[in-house]
Write a structure and sequence with these properties.
alpha/beta
């Protein structure tokens, strides 16, 4: 048996330093509670902007919307920044494996990311959301196949799939193919229907599913937060619903609603194999002669600079032409 924890907490809106302190306290609580793994919600560090439209009707962007994006960008964290360093220190001190949702800042772009930090305080993987949902596509970049890791944890092989990525059958299959045993699903979806999805995935993948969602009310956001719904101070923007489900599809704990809480579940990891007697989605129940999935795990970058090639062209230009049209753009720019 191994104990895991779910930190159903709300961000300190747009204050990543204060939210980091809240995360560290929860890690310490989980450690004292005997948990070996603790899972935090989607976008916990950086703040999930529930209800904002960023002043972006089709065909136009407002200055107020640009200010909202600036606030989001400023509260985002960098993967090598002080916030995650503090969380790594707490993970090491408590010997707890941490899975935490963040808004990641990379240059001027933000990503919805989950970071995995092991019980030694080492970042062993991260996943950028492949497909931001709806209006999220306006403010978050798209991840690629290079950040779909399944890593070792004290509870078993662990990976993360964020919110509505869980409705992507091929992505789920990619995770099953890596032998995932602890399937983490940080989310901002607090609807009753979410639990049906989580139970289905546990049965389909014959894995433990841990889902974590924030609890946030309108009063938890700044006065000038221009939400499209939930305008009264006590209105609930996210109500939680965190839970842990077994490979049988049984709910072990939760869902918990409307309160901040660290919840615990004890996992019988023998069930991972016992439930594979009659179903293994990427093993004896697969039909590779009929269906096959190709997953591109290569990182995609918009600009690839090759300095050796550029230097070669500078040192030995084409002697048959004096025109700059045949010279690489980077070289022409440097000459001009």
């Amino acid at each position: 048996m191994v104990r895991v924890a779910v930190a159903q907490l709300g961000s300190v809106a747009f204050d990543s330093a204060a939210t980091t302190n809240k995360a560290v306290a929860a890690i310490r609580e989980a450690g004292r509670g005997g948990a070996r793994v603790v899972v935090f919600p989607e976008a916990f560090l950086g703040t999930y902007p529930k209800g904002l439209n960023f002043g972006s009707p089709v065909g136009r962007r407002t200055e107020e919307g640009r200010d909202e994006y600036l606030r989001t960008w400023r509260s985002a964290v960098e993967l090598d920044g002080p916030e995650l360093a503090a969380i790594a220190d707490a993970a090491q001190q408590e010997s707890v494996f941490v899975v935490i949702g963040v808004i990641e800042r990379a240059g001027r772009t933000c990503y919805c990311t989950v970071v995995m930090i092991d019980e030694h305080g080492v970042t062993v993987g991260y996943h950028r959301k492949l497909m931001p949902t709806g209006a999220e596509r306006l403010i978050w970049g798209f991840g690629d196949g290079s950040t779909l890791p399944v890593v070792d944890s004290p509870a078993g092989k662990l990976g993360s799939v964020i919110c509505w990525e869980n409705y992507m059958p091929l992505m789920r299959t990619a995770m099953y193919s890596q032998g995932i045993e602890i399937y983490c699903a940080p989310t901002a979806d607090d609807r009753d229907t979410w639990m049906s999805t989580m139970r289905h995935i546990a049965l389909e993948g014959r894995c433990f599913v841990i889902t974590a969602c924030q609890v946030m009310r309108r009063r938890d956001y700044p006065q000038d937060y221009q939400t499209e719904f939930g305008t009264s101070p006590e209105d609930v923007l996210m109500r939680g619903g965190s839970a842990v489900i077994s490979p049988r599809g049984e709910v072990l704990v939760g869902p918990v609603y409307d309160e901040e809480h660290v919840i615990y579940a004890d996992l019988n990891t023998d069930d991972l194999v016992r439930q594979a007697l009659d179903f293994d989605a990427v093993g004896h129940y697969a039909r590779a002669d009929v269906f096959r999935l190709h997953v591109d795990t290569e990182a995609k970058v918009p600009v690839a600079l090759h300095p050796k090639a550029v230097q070669s062209r500078v040192a030995a230009p084409d002697s048959t032409s004096t025109s700059t049209s045949s010279v690489p753009l980077a070289v022409r720019m440097s000459k001009e």
